[in-house]
Predict the structure.
Amino acid sequence: QVQLQESGPGLVRPSQTLSLRCPVSGETIASVYPYWSWIRQPPGKELEWMGSIHYRGSTYDAPFFKGRASISVDTPKNQFTLQLSSVTPQDTAVYYCARSTRKIVTTRLPDDVWGQGTQVTVSS
């Protein structure tokens, strides 16, 4: 059974860089499901797709973040990561990692696998 679990700090100071990891268990990250994605949900808002990466390294970034979001794959560790720079309180959200056949992930589909999510608060 494939499982994803987000890992990272729960509190980040404004202007810092948020770093999150998503270790994958039960399947190699170099799998037939090519896209590994980060999605977030700010309080009271819809899901926001942040970006996706193909295990071979091609990345797809959401324009909304204007280059602040960076996704990478660590194949030996079977995990992928998110870095979000220059965070502000508006980046407070529950952050999810997901495996999907879709490049852009804004909803949950039955074939997707999502982590349970991790709360990140940006505050001084």
Q: What stands out?
A: The longest strand covers residues 18-25. The chain has no helices and eleven strands. The mean pLDDT is 93.
